[in-house]
């Protein structure tokens, strides 16, 4: 899996328990054509908003537990569900095999001698499995352990995951642990004839691992069959649905239909509400006029207007401006904005000695972790200015785009710096957030999602500094500030008007007149900054 991705798209994590070598030696590397393809990244359809206009989460990820005997077809069933769901966004298949425990030297010796039972529940770190699954279900990031089946050992590296709408947790012990079962919204057991499971296991291990039938049968009789009889099969009593290990199209259809129904019930339209808040959302005083909402809610840091600043905005707004001039003045404006935003970072006194030997008191930055995160659309309009002002700081990115049918913001990619991917560091990190295209807060749909992502990772609200070129005061910024009052928004100018309309030339769903997708445009605005720069 690519480090730093969303939980990417559809992601499969872990390998099957039967990967352990049974010949008393570490597994021999296989040719690429024989490598198991369980760790797979598929194409994402994006993740829609999982929060309401108050910024709080409205629903958890939908979690499915899939258990069954070894070679019963668990992974195949999980993949069938993924294929049947089609355009459902962001699915993770999480295997219990990632959670084998760390082994000491004595246990390693037994493992390499084929004398360690990997089919017993005690072989799995169930508390860690439940903890990681709980974080993913709650919309937080998780760092999944990586287990080497060649070395019979858990590695120091981890796999970063975030952003799942659906999680499928699969493994032979997926239904045995009460803490895991409590996290599932749907529990599935894959039932398969014992003879068929053994035949599949022999065929697979001979083909993929070059093992002999005697070794396969030895492991099966010593560990696999007793485990199935004592732990795996009894756990089927906890299942909501029993799925055949073969010829199971009807069962897959039922499961997929149920999941789609559950997700539809959890969905909600957000962008329209925050784009024109005075229509849908009342201010704390009980009124809902745009004037009252703005007066009570919006707290922006707008740079003081100077002839220089007005001149830059005039050039950027002018549709006849040459591309090279547009890029030059975009960089100038971004540099001014980031410099202005630096006042919100913590500084402490520092005494230094000048070149002529005089001691003088100054200031130094009082934070260990600073990073930038760009909301990618079509360019890096603010990034060059950011790098000029803050040197040698990691910059991450988010890809957030509007859904072609609903117009809602969709999270397509997450590439966050190391500081944010680990919660204990994220809590100490100051984050500069920059809208790149359009470099403005209109409906605030992308801004909402970006801030929610940072909060999910543990970044403190008062450590987020949102830097943007332009804000529409009658757009979603009032709702944004009410939802996240601790976030500091620094902008260079404010436009008054948001115009509601339809995207020309697009015929969207729920639009019988064929006008296209619903859109909101900031006026006078600055156009498509990312495209021009």
Automatic annotation (TrEMBL):
Residue span, Phosphoribosyltransferase domain: 305-500
EC number per UniProt: 2.7.1.48
Pfam families associated with the record: PRK, UPRTase
Residue stretches of biased makeup (Polar residues): 25-39
Protein species of origin: Hypholoma sublateritium (strain FD-334 SS-4)
UniProt xrefs under NCBIfam families: PRK05480.1, udk
Superkingdom in the source lineage: Eukaryota
Stored SUPFAM superfamilies: P-loop containing nucleoside triphosphate hydrolases, PRTase-like
Pathway: Pyrimidine metabolism; UMP biosynthesis via salvage pathway; UMP from uridine: step 1/1; Pyrimidine metabolism; CTP biosynthesis via salvage pathway; CTP from cytidine: step 1/3
Broadest EC class assigned to this enzyme: transferase
GO molecular function: ATP binding; cytidine kinase activity; uridine kinase activity
Phosphoribulokinase/uridine kinase domain: residues covered: 63-245
Family named by the database record: Belongs to the uridine kinase family.
Region (Disordered): 16-39
Keywords associated with the record: ATP-binding, Kinase, Nucleotide-binding, Transferase
Catalytic reactions on record: cytidine + ATP = CMP + ADP + H(+); uridine + ATP = UMP + ADP + H(+)
Gene Ontology biological-process entries: CTP salvage; UMP salvage
Record's protein name: Uridine kinase
């Amino acid at each position: 899996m690519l480090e730093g991705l969303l939980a990417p798209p559809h992601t499969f994590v872990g390998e099957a328990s039967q990967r352990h070598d049974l010949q008393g030696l570490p597994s021999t590397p296989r040719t690429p054509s024989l490598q198991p393809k369980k760790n797979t990244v598929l194409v994402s359809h994006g993740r829609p908003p999982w929060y309401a206009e108050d910024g709080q989460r409205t629903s958890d990820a939908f979690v499915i537990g899939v258990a069954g005997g070894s070679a019963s077809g668990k992974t195949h069933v999980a993949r069938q569900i993924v294929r049947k769901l089609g355009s459902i966004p962001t699915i993770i298949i999480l295997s219990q095999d990632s959670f084998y425990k760390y082994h000491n030297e004595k246990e390693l010796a037994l493992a390499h001698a084929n004398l360690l039972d990997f089919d017993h529940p005690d072989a799995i770190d169930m508390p860690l499995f439940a903890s990681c699954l709980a974080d993913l279900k709650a919309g937080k990031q998780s760092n999944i352990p990586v287990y080497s089946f060649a070395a019979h050992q858990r590695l120091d590296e981890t796999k970063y995951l975030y952003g799942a709408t659906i999680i499928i947790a699969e493994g032979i012990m997926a239904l045995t642990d009460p803490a895991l079962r409590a996290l599932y919204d749907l529990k599935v057991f894959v039932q398969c004839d014992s003879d068929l499971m053994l035949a599949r296991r022999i065929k697979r291990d001979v083909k993929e691992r070059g093992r002999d039938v005697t070794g396969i049968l030895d492991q099966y009789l010593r560990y696999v069959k007793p485990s199935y009889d004592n732990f795996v099969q009894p756990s089927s009593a906890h299942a909501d649905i029993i799925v055949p290990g073969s010829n199971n199209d009807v069962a897959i259809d039922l499961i997929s239909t149920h999941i789609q129904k559950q997700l539809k019930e959890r969905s909600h339209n957000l962008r329209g509400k925050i784009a024109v808040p005075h229509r849908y959302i009342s201010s704390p005083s009980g009124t809902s006029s745009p004037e009252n909402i703005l007066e009570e809610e919006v707290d922006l840091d707008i740079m003081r207007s100077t002839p220089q600043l007005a001149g830059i905005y005039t050039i950027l707004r002018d549709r006849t401006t040459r591309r090279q001039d547009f890029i030059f003045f975009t960089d100038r404006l971004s540099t001014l904005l980031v410099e202005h935003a630096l006042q919100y970072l913590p500084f402490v006194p520092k005494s230094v000695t000048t070149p002529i030997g005089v001691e003088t008191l100054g200031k130094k930055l009082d934070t260990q972790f600073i990073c930038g995160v760009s909301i990618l659309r079509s360019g890096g309009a603010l990034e060059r200015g950011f790098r000029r002002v803050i040197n040698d700081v990691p910059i991450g990115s988010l890809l957030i785009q509007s859904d072609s049918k609903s117009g809602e913001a969709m999270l397509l990619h997450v590439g966050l710096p190391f500081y944010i991917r680990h919660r204990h560091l994220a809590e100490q990190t100051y984050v500069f957030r920059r809208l790149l295209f359009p470099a403005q807060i209109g409906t605030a749909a992308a801004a909402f999602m970006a801030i929610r992502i940072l909060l999910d990772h543990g970044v403190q609200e008062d450590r987020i500094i949102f830097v943007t070129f332009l804000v529409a005061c009658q757009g979603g910024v009032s709702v944004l500030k009410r939802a996240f009052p601790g976030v500091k928004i620094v902008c260079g100018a404010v436009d008054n008007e948001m115009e509601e309309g339809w995207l020309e030339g697009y015929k969207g769903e729920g639009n019988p007149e064929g006008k296209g997708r619903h859109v909101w445009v900031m006026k006078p605005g600055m156009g498509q900054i990312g495209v021009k720069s």
